[in-house]
Write a structure and sequence with these properties.
Oligomer: heterodimer
Shape of chain A: globular
Mean pLDDT of chain B: 89
CATH class of the largest domain in chain A: Mainly Alpha
Number of domains of chain B: 1
CATH topology of the largest domain in chain A: MetI-like fold
Order of helices and strands of chain B: HHHHHHHHHHHHHHH
Shape of chain B: globular
Number of strands of chain B: 0
Number of helices of chain A: 15
CATH superfamily of the largest domain in chain A: MetI-like
Number of helices of chain B: 15
Mean pLDDT of chain A: 86
Radius of gyration of chain A: 25 Å
Low-confidence stretches of chain B: 1-6
Strand content of chain A: under 5%
CATH topology of chain B: MetI-like fold
Largest sheet of chain B: none
Number of domains of chain A: 2
Structural class of chain B: mainly alpha
Largest interface: A-B, 105 and 104 residues
Distance between the termini of chain A: 14 Å
Helix content of chain B: over 70%
Low-confidence stretches of chain A: 1-7, 251-257
Structural class of chain A: mainly alpha
CATH architecture of the largest domain in chain A: Orthogonal Bundle
CATH superfamily of chain B: MetI-like
Chain lengths: 312, 317
């Protein structure tokens, strides 16, 4: 059905490589290596700073490998309650919102994959329009206010829940990956549409459900805008909003630095340096779930892009 | 097929409608929940945009507020800030738009790699930044480009230069915004092109080589034409968003000192209404600003789609 990146065929070397080929390959590999290194270095730098001694990192003597390792920054992160509250909130929002998205997207896409459904085109346009026309900040705010979900956890869970592109990707999957004969034999056996959907389509579409779940989960994990606009109660904040407060607004007091400082000047300086490495440790901890999952889920994301590129 | 075999009778539309509903009600029910949520969270706010033409008073509600004509639009167009905001929005979008070929070039380069293992490693690493959240990417920019302890300034100092407060300089805002976007999206953007390049038949390439084509010839005459339809589609999608500079990243990179370059339509709407100095008095005005933005985007996407259809047969609709 789709080819994953790993299956891209390597050029067959039937023809002898000429001198110009060698030059071409050398330059190509050189540039690609440079680009790849520049992509990984910022992430690498975050990692090494978070594990370095505060003095070495904050005074700018660290570039590739810390001379001594330290977990002080991580101890500091573990003491910071607000981060863990945010973490717990984010996990909750991610799980529930992902389920919400799946329940809305998968059945609808199945329905729209049926070419015989009258009004299919109209319904598709109904969703397509949402890509280009939107009410904007204030009309949405007014709506959510009148629904009474401002400053509640509901605002992080409810919502439109379907994106046009996700709908199209899933619909294309149902049309191309499940042989039509399977459906037809089910109809002949007298199965209703719901039975066909639940007993045939869903069990055969684990891949697309995984893709959609991951898209929704990564989206929710990284989202801060909704919470930023609608949630003032900090105990309901998701992690990303807390990260913005600590890392971008530089609200250092949220790390309780006052409690830690001593009269000793050196100690105070150490605390200031520790703040520096702690920020990097926070970033690493915030990205950790993604980094752990990434090698396993990468292929699903690629698959999603591939199905999406088939014109539905 | 379910509906074959029954000869189509001439029915009046109501009976026809009822018949279809009876036959397909299960399918309609499956698609109903997202129709409802989309109606609530998308079409109702779309209706709410009428406050752009009203003197909105929260007490009177949307319907009760008196009509106000185009005066909100006039107010916005006559603000001295208007041209600055519009220029910032257009400039940032156009600059991002110019980086559009980066992913295509990178995909063409990856496609030329002969070692499958190296290729996989490059892909693995270059997709990774896509999974880092916007807040974290912006936090990294703030930290790396910090004037006193950021790594970029450490390097500048090491090379004997003077440290620069990058985030306080309006003239570097664009570069930070656009190139961090490239960093994050470059690898991910190649997936779709690489998938298309994988469909190029190896025989075709071999035949070209036997005819004496070198690698650049193959890229120019086989690989790029293969990518053309996808490029057009991606281009249309990008043009449609030309005035839709997202709120999130601009806002996260905005500081009091670079605001003259970083105030775009979406952040201005926030500033007027829900931001620190905002008030409900500007709700109607901000709806007008948002509507102005949407209409321009819509015109742009329809225009590009029409042109694309004429020129290349590839279009969104």
């Amino acid at each position: 059905m789709t080819k994953t990146s790993a299956k891209i065929p390597v050029r067959r070397n039937h023809i002898k490589r000429s001198r110009s080929d060698v030059v071409f390959d050398t330059i190509n590999i050189f540039i690609i290596t440079l680009i790849t290194l520049s992509m990984i270095y910022p992430m690498w730098y975050v990692l090494i700073v978070s594990f370095a001694t505060p003095e070495e990192a904050a005074l700018g003597r660290l570039y590739f490998w810390p001379s001594t390792f330290s977990v002080e920054a991580y101890q500091k992160v573990f003491e910071t309650r607000s981060i863990w509250i945010g973490y717990a909130n984010t996990i909750f929002y991610t799980v529930v919102h992902t389920l919400y998205v799946l329940l809305l997207t998968i059945p609808a896409a199945y329905s729209l994959s049926k070419k015989q459904l009258p009004g299919r085109v109209v319904i598709t346009w109904y969703f397509f329009i949402t890509m280009f026309l939107s009410g904007g900040l204030i009309p949405s705010y007014m709506l959510n206010k009148s629904l009474g979900i401002v400053n509640t956890r509901w605002i992080m869970i409810l919502g439109m829940g379907v994106g046009y592109s996700n709908l199209v990707i899933t619909r294309t999957f149902f049309q191309t990956s499940i042989p039509q004969e399977v459906y037809e034999s089910a109809y002949i056996d007298g199965a209703s549409e719901w039975q066909t959907f639940l007993r045939i389509a869903v069990p055969l579409s684990g891949a697309i459900i995984a893709v959609m779940a991951l898209y929704a989960a990564v989206g929710t994990w990284g989202s801060w805008y909704t919470a930023f606009i609608y949630i003032t109660d900090q105990t309901k904040w998701p992690l990303q909003l807390r990260l913005r407060q600590i890392l971008i607004e530089n609200q250092t007091q949220s790390l309780d630095i006052q409690q830690m400082t001593q009269e000793d000047i050196e100690m105070m300086q150490h605390q200031a340096f520790l703040m520096f490495t702690t920020k990097y440790a926070i970033i690493f901890i915030a990205c950790l779930p993604m980094l752990i999952l990434y090698p396993f889920v990468q292929k699903y994301f690629v698959k999603g892009v591939m199905i999406g590129s088939l014109k539905g | 097929m379910v509906n074959t075999g029954t000869p189509r009778k001439k029915l009046d539309w109501r009976a026809d409608f009822m018949k279809r509903l009876r036959r397909y009600w299960q399918l309609y029910l499956l698609v109903l929940p997202p129709i409802i949520t989309t109606f609530i969270w998308h079409y109702i706010p779309l209706y709410g945009v009428v406050i752009a033409f009203k003197d909105y008073k929260p007490k009177l509600g949307i319907l009760g507020s008196p009509w106000y004509g185009f005066r909100h639009f006039e107010w916005f167009f006559n603000r001295p800030m208007f041209w600055q905001i519009l220029w910032n929005t257009v400039r940032i979008s156009l600059y991002s738009f110019c980086t559009f070929p980066c992913a295509i070039i990178f995909a063409l380069m990856i496609n030329e790699l002969t070692s499958a293992k190296f290729k996989k490693t490059v892909q693995m690493i270059s997709y990774m930044p896509h999974f880092i959240s916007t807040v974290v990417v912006c936090a990294m920019i703030h930290m790396f480009f910090n004037a006193s302890d950021g790594i970029v300034n450490n390097v500048i100092k090491l090379l004997g230069g003077e440290p620069v407060a990058f985030l306080y300089k309006p003239n570097v805002f664009d570069h930070l915004y656009v190139w961090s976007g490239v960093w994050q999206g470059l690898g991910w953007g190649t997936i779709i092109y690489l998938a298309n390049l994988a469909n190029v038949s190896p025989d075709l390439i071999e035949a070209a080589r036997l005819d004496g084509a070198n690698r650049m010839d193959i890229i120019r005459h086989i690989n790029i034409p293969t990518l053309m339809p996808t490029i057009v589609i991606m281009l249309i999608l990008r043009v449609g968003g030309i005035l839709g500079v997202g709120f999130e990243k601009v806002f996260l990179l905005q500081t009091q000192r670079n605001i003259s370059a970083s105030r775009v339509i979406s952040t201005y709407v926030y500033e007027l209404t829900l931001g620190a100095g905002g008030s409900t008095a500007y709700w109607d005005t901000s709806a007008a600003i948002g509507l102005f933005n949407t209409i321009i985007n819509l015109i742009l996407i329809i225009l590009t789609n029409t042109i694309a259809r004429k020129v290349s047969d590839v279009a969104l609709w």
